[in-house]
Amino acid sequence: MSRPRPSCMLLTMSTHITYPLTFLTLSPISGCQEFIGNSIEFAYGKRADNIQGVQTLSGTGGLRIFGEYLNKFFPKKNIYVPNPTWGNHIPIMQNAGLEVRKYRYYDFENRKVDFEGLIEDMDAADDGSCFLLHACAHNPTGYDLSDNEWKQVSDIMLRKNHLPFFDCAYQGFASGNAETDAKAIRLFEDEGHTFGLVQSYSKNFGLYGQRVGCLSIVGKDAEEAKAVVSQFKGLIRPAYSNPPRHGVRIINTILGDESMKALFVDECKFMADRINSMRVELVNNLIATGSTRNWDHVTNQIGMFAFSGLTKDEVIAMRDRHHIYCTLDGRISMAGVTTKNVKYIADSIHDVTK
Ligand code: PMP
After folding, report:
1. For the chain, how many helices (H) and strands (E)?
2. 37 φ, ψ to 5°?
3. Core-most of 78, 134, 211, 285, by most CB within 10 Å?
């Protein structure tokens, strides 16, 4: 005797039962709308119809989606990044199918921003090129543009019809004040640019493991911004379907509540001040240990990193002789320097540089 077939009705019913439950545990492709609104307000200082966004897999994921968007819709299929820049920018954009070009940012010899070089390169680029800009706490140099320099960059980008793309991975880390750190983004919004922005919550909210980010676009109007976001969704769906839910709820809890937000702002200042005090301590210890090199740049720089000026050989010697690890371009994470290890680090740096 053959077994009875299961009823179709049963299958239909189970779909009805499970569908709403599944739905409750999923974010839509674009992510959590409450989080996107909070993120937009955090960066731009306001919400507006012509600013729309999607939740992303942290800063890296947002960069990749924007790179793919450029590859699909931007006629030039290239992007200018500062020299130097965060090492991962280059493969992210290359893997998205773009040609990566560099614009001058840092004067390695004099350890300061090469502003003339930057302006010359923006001027020389074809009209309508896309430029990646670090919104604050430039990684790895720790040197940001002044207000006046940002205004000049905004002017030239408007004149050349360039497309700005801000990467904001350290809001709150540069000055200790999240509002101040958003000033370049807000200036460009005020000045009427159309532009993209990717935000990471890895460092400022300590959410590295949760992959929390937001990719937003300032369109000429709401219709344009919504059309771009719809294309972002078209890229997200075949990449990872939809983003995770947990980390954004932490952000919503904090940024959606005035007293929690005030606490975050205070703690951010505390953290930025601690890093700055470690810069001073590191230099004081270097001088005390007998180093005659000029270390002024370490205290002039801001953000999480010291672009120390150590050569590749010196970095390797520090690793081999003292078990101190930093990137081969000499970038030291100041977040790892404490009152307990600062003397050891200074002695080790002096040992490999004397
Ligand atoms: N942009 C910059 C400039 C960064 O330094 C980083 C992280 N080091 C990121 C983006 C991406 O970080 P995440 O993917 O962890 O948000």
Report:
1. 14, 11
2. -60, -45
3. 134
323: tokens are 């078990």
Q: Whose CA is nearest to atom 10 of ligand 1?
A: 59
What are residue 340's DSSP bridge partners? none
Rounded to the nearest whole angstrom, what is the distance from the C-alpha of residue 103 to the centroid of ligand 1? 20
Instruction: Calculate how far, in angstroms, residue 63's C-alpha sits from the geometric centre of ligand 1.
Output: 9
The pLDDT tens digits of the residues spanning 119-162 come to 999 999 999 999 999 999 999 999 999 999 999 999 999 999 99
265's tokens? 């702002």
* Residues pairing with 307 in the sheet: 331
| DSSP-based three-state secondary structure for 218 | strand
Type of residue at 145: L
With bands split at pLDDT 50, 70 and 90, how would you rate the model's confidence at 173? Answer: confident
Active site residue 266: no
Catalytic residue among 86, 114, 144, 295: 86
Instruction: Mark whether 86 is an active-site residue.
Output: yes
Residue 40 sits at φ, ψ, to 5 deg, of -60, -45
Catalytic residue among 114, 181, 183, 203: 203
Q: How many CA atoms lie within 13 A of 236 on its CB side?
A: 26
Query: Cα–Cα distance between 328 and 118 in angstroms, integer?
Result: 24
In this structure, are residues 58 and 202 in contact, taking their beta carbons and an 8 Å threshold? yes
Q: Answer for the pair 199, 217: CB distance below 8 angstroms, yes or no.
A: no
Catalytic residue, chosen from 167, 181, 183, 295, is: 167
Residue 333 phi, psi (nearest 5) = -80, 110
For the entire predicted model, the pTM comes to 0.91
Residue nearest to atom 7 of ligand 1 (CA): 169
